[in-house]
Amino acid sequence: MASGFRTIENRFAEILANLPNRFVAVILKFLIQPFGARVLGPSDRVVHQCAQLVLEPSAARDRLTPDLAFVDDDGGIARLEKAFLLVTATEDIAKTMRAARLHDPKEAVKEAVITQAEADKLAAAQEAVAGVIEVDDFAPEALSPIYRKTADVHQFFQELGEQRAAS
Hints:
Helices cover about 70% and strands about 0% of the residues. By secondary structure, it is an all-alpha fold. Helix 1 (about 1-15) runs antiparallel to helix 2 (about 20-30) and helix 5 runs antiparallel to helix 8 (about 115-135). It starts with a helix and ends with a helix.
C-alpha cells in the first residue's frame, strides 16, 4: 500500500513538473503537495524480506501459492514449481560442489565430493531447470522455406514461379 501511495505522489510530481504553464504548476503543487512527496514507500530491507518469502520453501510461500499449479500436470507453472522444489532440495549438494570448486557432477563423483545418488538428484534438477527455460522449439524447416531440403526448395521455387506466371 505504501508503494502505491509513493507511486501516486511521484506521478503527481511528474505531472506538475511537466505542466507547460509554470504559474498553474506552482499553484497546483502548493494545493496538492504543499510539503512535497511525503510517502517514501517500503524500505529495501522490507522488500528483501518479502522476496525471501517466495524464494525459499516456507509456510508463508505455501500460503501464497496454494493452488497455483498441480505438480502432476505438465503446464508451465507446474514445471516451474517442480524445478523449484528440485533445486531447493539439491542446494546443499551444489554448495558442496562449489566449495570444492567443481562444476561437473561426474567429476565430483570421481573425486568423492558427492555420491552418485546426489549426482543423479543434481542432474534431475538441472534437467527440470532446462525444461522450464526451454521455449517453444521448432525445426528451422517448419519456420522458413530457406531451410528446407534441396528437393523441397526446388519444388517451392517451381511452385512460386508457376504462381507468378499465372498472375
